[in-house]
Design brief:
- Helix 3 crosses helix 4 and helix 10 crosses helix 14.
- The chain is built from 16 helices and 16 strands.
- The chain is globular and about 65 Å long.
- It folds into 2 domains: 222 residues, 3-Layer(aba) Sandwich (Rossmann fold), CATH 3.40.50; 214 residues, Glycogen Phosphorylase B (Rossmann fold, 3-Layer(aba) Sandwich).
- The protein has a 10-stranded mixed β-sheet, with helices on both faces. The chain has a 6-stranded parallel β-sheet with strand order 13-12-11-14-15-16, sandwiched between helices.
- 41% of the residues lie in helices and 18% in strands.
- It binds GDP-alpha-D-glucose (GDG).
């Protein structure tokens, strides 16, 4: 089999990050490369003065890591600027947070060219190149401009909005149409894939063979749906082991027989953490019998703190936690435990298993791995209940979870009450339904499906694997 060269902004070089950093992309790529010993190429995580950028190469367990430094000015424009103040909000449907600057856009395109130059030096003729996420929309174009004819695939981990929103991106053709230089563009959901197809058909009038195959000059670009999965079996084992360890027991003892609800999210406005806390406040107001009987643990490692919007949401969440705990708390009970530091994966697995319910209520999310990890971590004989936003990509496969509209605080409050009161039989049935679907589409299956579709000579049937049909016993919590 040809060598797979994975490209992503972040590269988790072993022995450097300690493995406790929050971030879905790193979690899935680490897992993919563990099995498919190829090359992992991207940013080194270092910003240096202009002219001092270096490229480093190392090998660990059969994987070659190649990382490039970025100058501070480039990083500001490419990452903090265009990628995270323009593309991230627009792709998460948040036009209100978009800050466009042509200088940042030029920096973004320049850094993509720089990465193409660096990568070129390492490429072999039959390498299969798999590019990840919104930092690198134009990377294939930069590589094609340099004569690269290899198969190049792209996977977007975050949502892709309808054309009405995309066209609010100034000079949108420059970034969006550059996707046509890939052989295969993969999305998390059919909805995301349809949005690109609509953009290409209606906005760009691009000729197509069908809704998933477009003709761009001499090149054919296919669109596919590949929902990201998690390591279900491994995570279940991890949760079973960790649950018995001292730390998990210490947390449980500190709860003094109260039920625990868990939330785990990078600090990001797309995750709806503040709105979720207000829904929990509403729950305490509407269902007073639970006061003193349930503790909500929210684990939220900080991310992108150098961007103003992130500092703003941090402040607003702090205020909400203070208000709820001040109003409802007692000397012997704190309603919300809010923690900003990251925990190890095994600790998270144990905490998931110890929780009666998980609150996963992003306002918009490509997939959301926390939802899937929570399901993997449960004891099937006595599982907790997943409360999941209908706007997370994971909702497609998790129809048997309690699906909620995160903007509707009363509905979320009602779902919390429903989860905590749910009979054991129903909890088991819902858990089993979701667990079975997620086990069929774990992270290994995801990676193999994408690479197979990218390398197969004929266009693959590029639609999503099956989602569970809504079971009749489910009354949606909305
Ligand atoms: C992007 C898309 C898509 C969280 N806190 C800690 C920790 N985490 C881990 C979780 C999970 C991951 O980080 C977060 O994944 P998500 O999927 O929730 O979110 P994003 O980082 O926004 O990821 C997302 C994903 O890419 C994959 O395609 O699902 O929609 O936005 O694995 O467990 N890990 C550790 N300590 C923590 O405190 N070790």
């Amino acid at each position: 089999m040809a060598r797979v060269v994975v490209v992503s902004n972040r590269v988790a070089v072993p022995n450097r990050d300690g493995g406790a950093r929050a971030g879905g992309l790193e979690v899935v790529l680490r897992s993919f490369l563990k099995r498919n010993q190829g090359v992992w190429f991207g940013w080194s995580g270092r910003t240096v003065p202009k002219g001092e950028e270096k490229v480093r190469q190392s090998e660990h367990a059969g994987v070659t890591y190649i990382t490039a430094d970025i100058s501070r000015a480039d990083f500001q424009e490419y990452y903090n600027g265009f990628a995270n103040r323009m593309l991230w909000p627009i792709l998460h449907y948040r036009l209100d947070l978009v800050e466009f600057s042509s200088r940042d856009m030029a920096g973004y395109l320049r850094v993509n060219e720089m990465f193409a130059d660096r990568l070129l030096a390492f490429l072999k003729p039959d390498d299969v190149i798999w590019v990840h996420d919104y930092h690198f929309l134009p990377l294939a174009k930069a590589l094609r401009d340099r004569g690269v004819q290899n198969k190049i695939g792209f996977f977007l981990h975050i949502p892709f909005p309808p054309p009405d929103l995309l066209t609010a991106l100034p000079k949108h053709e420059r970034t969006i149409l550059s996707l046509c230089h890939y052989d295969l563009v993969g999305f998390q959901t059919d909805n995301d894939a349809d949005n690109l197809a609509d953009y290409l058909t209606n906005e760009s009038r691009m000729p197509s063979r069908d809704r998933r195959t477009f003709i761009a000059g001499q090149r054919t670009m296919r669109i596919g749906v590949f929902p990201v999965g998690v390591e279900m079996a491994e995570f279940e084992r991890l949760a079973r082991r960790t649950n018995r360890l001292a730390f998990a027991r210490e947390v449980l003892t500190s709860l003094a027989d109260r039920s625990m609800i868990i939330g785990v999210d990078r600090l990001d406005y797309s995750k709806g953490i503040g709105m979720r806390m207000r829904a929990f406040e509403q729950f305490l107001a509407d269902y007073p019998r639970w006061r003193g009987a349930v503790t909500y643990l929210q684990i939220t490692p900080r991310s992108r703190s150098e961007i103003r919007e992130y500092a703003d949401i941090e402040r607003r969440i702090d205020e909400t936690v203070g208000r709820v705990n001040g109003h409802y708390g007692e000397a012997s009970w704190t309603p919300i435990r809010y923690v900003n530091r990251p925990y190890s994966r095994s600790t998270l697995a144990g905490l998931y298993r110890a929780s009666r319910a998980a609150l996963v209520t992003p306002l918009r999310d490509g997939m959301n791995l926390v939802a899937k990890e929570y399901i993997a971590a449960q004891d099937p004989e006595d599982p907790g209940v997943l409360i999941l936003s209908r706007f997370a990509g994971a909702a497609v496969e998790c129809q048997a979870a309690l699906l909620v509209n995160p903007y509707d605080q009363e509905a979320v409050a009602a779902a919390i009450d429903q989860a905590l009161s749910m009979p054991l039989d129903e909890r088991r049935a819902r858990h089993r339904d979701v667990f079975n679907v997620l086990s069929e589409n774990d992270v290994k299956f995801w990676g193999n499906r994408f690479i197979d579709a990218l390398t197969c000579p004929e266009p693959a049937a590029a639609s999503a694997p099956r989602a569970v049909a809504a079971s009749p016993h489910l009354a949606a919590a909305e």
